[in-house]
Amino acid sequence: xxxxxxxxxxxxxxxxxxxxxxxxxxxxxxxxxxxxxxxxxxxxxxxxxxxxxxxxxxxxxxxxxxxxxxxxxxxxxxxxxxxxxxxxxxxxxxxxxxxxxxxxxxxxxxxxxxxxxxxxxxxxxxxxxxxxxxxxxxxxxxxxxxxxxxxxxxxxxxxxxxxxxxxxxxxxxxxxxxxxxxxxxxxxxxxxxxxxxxxxxxxxxxxxxxxxxxxxxxxxxxxxxxxxxxxxxxxxxxxxxxxxxxxxx
Length: 249
Ligand code: SF4
Ligand code: FES
Hints:
By secondary structure, the chain is of the alpha+beta class. The protein has helices spanning 33-46, 118-125, 147-157, 164-168, 175-186, 195-208, 219-223, 231-247, and strands spanning 3-10, 17-24, 69-70, 73-74, 96-100, 109-111, 114-115. The chain is built from eight helices and seven strands; from the N terminus they run E-E-H-E-E-E-E-E-H-H-H-H-H-H-H.
């Protein structure tokens, strides 16, 4: 296969950027998207040019490190799939693809397709954990969690913090990410002690990082590689309402 690429190249955070054309030759349909970029980079390195910077780690859809826009869609056209799990068979020979970094005020570009997503880490630092001292580990059967409840918590806990939801949202909101973390802990017994304080701290940190508000567009849900539904955002709003209502009494 031959793939034409227009790739956002930007040497650093304060440097101007622009789309640069490249052609990827002899690409196997079985290659992953990132392997295709590796092949392009090998050619660039051989020519003495700067390779395209992009993030990746596990390359099996579990770590959340990869992510960029493929022709305007976060993680590309395959639903429920990270860009590292996207394969070239999804595209046509001779197709032209435009690759751009996540675009959001809270995600400044570091280089080319790499953005700084530490704002998501700071939302977690604000409350996405349990800090109660539980002593020694209990017998697993001592705290009963129903199968339905455990499954629902796990459906939210699968968020890999990739940031695609932010990139797809016209408000650059991280509401889906934040709500998935809040929901996961709100559904489990271990999350109850800090439940009220957690939602307030995390939502305030979200806003403080410069992410926008949710206006129910649903673009986040459409691109989320873990298919996390926006019902998580409804739960977060309910949790926040309850927490602020009780604290104002
Ligand atoms: S909610 Fe989905 S799109 Fe957003 S950070 Fe988590 S896994 Fe990525
Ligand atoms: S590199 Fe880990 S999810 Fe893509």
